[in-house]
Design goal:
- There is one protein chain.
- It is built from eleven helices and 23 strands.
- The protein is of the alpha/beta class.
- The strands form five sheets. Strands 1, 2, 3, 5, 7 and 11 form a six-stranded mixed beta sheet that branches. Strands 12-10-14-19-16-17 form a six-stranded mixed beta sheet.
- The longest helix has 33 residues.
- The structure holds copper (II) ion (CU).
Length: 502
């Protein structure tokens, strides 16, 4: 062990975070080296500035075969960004995005690290790079107040793929707000060449609101303590790797994914639906010690590097195979492979992939449409007070998103249900007859024998946890989709039915 045990390490950090002054520069002040450190030792090395990339891009492999002094400039910024369609969050970032900028150096490089905390930040931050051999992985030397900059240096002794993260108290909050990334230390002779490299990280977000609840969401410390995230995401937001943001490759190419888990709490069961990892560097170590792997476990604060050749075209879905996280909390991405069919390897319909794919894509299409309609509503209000129908259209588009996160799983995307099991809601006389009964079905659940369009059903629909707005929107959607013309449901209707069924 070259580093102190982790517990000790965080104790040291907490101590530092609470008792130390704030090292760094104030504006206009000349840089003063706290101590000469190792700089003179590296005086003869060639100097270069590290290329930092935004996920899913990875900096180019290091082709140098001798060490250098590498200068890393990483800027901390606190920014409001999209977490999901209609949902925003104040992320704390390394480089403006989640995960933080990807850093790549070579084994043996002397790294001069500059951590710059933007003047608009509200919090002090620091950095613990798991690639560093030294107290706190650099955290002890990088505690930086807003508008300040800190500097420390280290030699990248060990090759591998390492997580870095903020280690300022409360640490789970800083990580939960997005303060993590990867630093790749290429081995002396480089990694074997591949056609494509990608950078993907998983992390949880603990919002006060439930998954999908619109608006600017706050961090919920209790949910974090209980390890009950509302979101588990790949690359910082729901859908960050979906649709036209999907990873890309051509048939016949080799793909390497540097996959990290920022956490702060959950371990990922990383899987690509429809692919087998030809090689895995487990836990981000320097040896591809395993071959032909379906799912690799990636610890919180750890990584894995996977390599595979893509043999057939199609959409391959990246998931945490703890699947509720993929289906209900956002831990889902896509790799789109284009090229000629290879019927010998695979021929047929990719049910899993296309199914989820369409749902996600339709979800963001619905969102775009909602934005258009809101813009139209503003215009309509300005020009003419006849706005009722547009309001309902907005409800329908919002409702479509709710439908695609929940109802479609049982009632099917086309509303036709499943004979004898899930009743149809397209053309349903049961739905048409009683709006309050439908509201109650969604908020309280529905079970026991019912008849829909003359056919008997006796099954159970669980109560669904949606806001009053969401219930009104989804019912208005199903009451006006697939040829249904059953009227609409308002938030007030839902509140009334909730009160009547307390
Ligand atoms: Cu921080």
């Amino acid at each position: 062990m070259k580093t102190p045990p982790r517990l000790l390490r965080s104790a040291v950090l907490l101590l530092l975070a609470t008792t130390s002054g704030l090292p760094g520069l104030t504006a206009g002040e000349a840089p003063v080296l706290a101590r000469p450190g190792a700089r003179p030792l590296a005086a003869n090395l060639p100097v270069e500035t590290a290329v930092l990339t935004e996920a899913p891009a990875v900096p180019p492999p290091i082709t140098r075969r001798t060490p250098a002094k590498v200068i890393v400039n990483l800027e901390v910024r606190e920014v409001v960004k999209r977490l999901a369609d209609g949902v925003e969050y104040t992320f704390w970032t390394y480089g403006g995005n989640v995960p933080g900028s990807c850093i790549r150096v070579r084994e043996g490089d002397f790294v001069e690290f500059h951590l710059n905390n933007h003047p608009t930040s509200k919090m002090p931050h620091n950095i613990d790079l798991h690639a560093v051999t030294g107290p706190g992985g650099g955290a002890a030397s990088s505690f930086t107040a807003p508008g300040h900059t800190s500097q420390f240096s280290f030699t990248a002794l060990n090759p591998g793929t390492y997580v870095y993260h903020c280690a300022t108290a409360p640490v789970p909050m800083h990580i939960g707000n997005g303060m993590y990334g990867l630093i790749i230390v290429d081995p002396k002779d480089g990694l074997p060449p591949v056609d494509r490299e990608y950078y993907v990280m998983q992390g949880e977000i603990y919002t006060a609101g439930r998954y999908g609840e619109p608006g600017l969401q706050n961090f919920d410390p209790m949910k974090a303590e209980d390890e009950r995230p509302s979101y588990v995401v790949l690359n910082g937001s729901v859908g960050a790797l979906v649709g036209d943001r999907a990873l890309q490759a051509n048939v016949g190419e080799t793909v390497r994914i540097f996959f990290g888990v920022g956490g702060p709490n959950l371990t990922s069961s990383f899987h690509v639906i429809g692919e087998i990892f030809d090689r895995v560097y487990p836990e981000g170590g320097s040896v591809a010690s395993q071959h032909n792997v379906q799912t690799t476990m990636v610890p919180s604060g750890g990584s894995a590097v996977v390599e595979f050749k893509v043999e057939v075209p199609g959409t391959f879905i990246l998931v945490d195979h703890s699947l509720s996280r993929a289906f209900n909390k956002g831990a889902l991405g896509m790799l789109k492979v284009t090229g000629p069919e290879n019927m010998l390897t695979y021929s047929g319909k990719e049910v899993d992939a296309v199914y989820i794919g369409q749902a996600s894509e339709a979800g963001s299409a619905a969102s775009k449409r909602e934005a258009e309609l809101i813009a139209r509503r503003e215009q309509a209000i300005a020009a003419n007070p006849q706005i009722g129908t547009i309001t309902q259209e907005i409800q329908q588009e919002r409702g479509k998103k709710v439908f695609l996160t929940s109802c479609f799983a049982c009632h099917m995307a086309n509303g036709e249900g499943l004979p004898g099991v899930f009743p149809p809601i397209a053309g349903s006389d049961f739905l048409k007859a009683d709006k309050d009964r439908a509201i109650k079905a969604v908020i309280k659940g529905l079970s026991g024998p019912i008849t829909v369009n003359g056919k008997p059903y006796n099954n159970m629909m669980p109560p669904l946890e949606f806001t009053d707005d969401q219930v009104a929107d989804v019912l208005t959607y199903v009451m006006n989709e697939w040829g249904n013309r059953f009227g609409s449901v308002s938030t007030a209707d839902v509140k009334r039915v909730r009160a009547e069924n307390k």
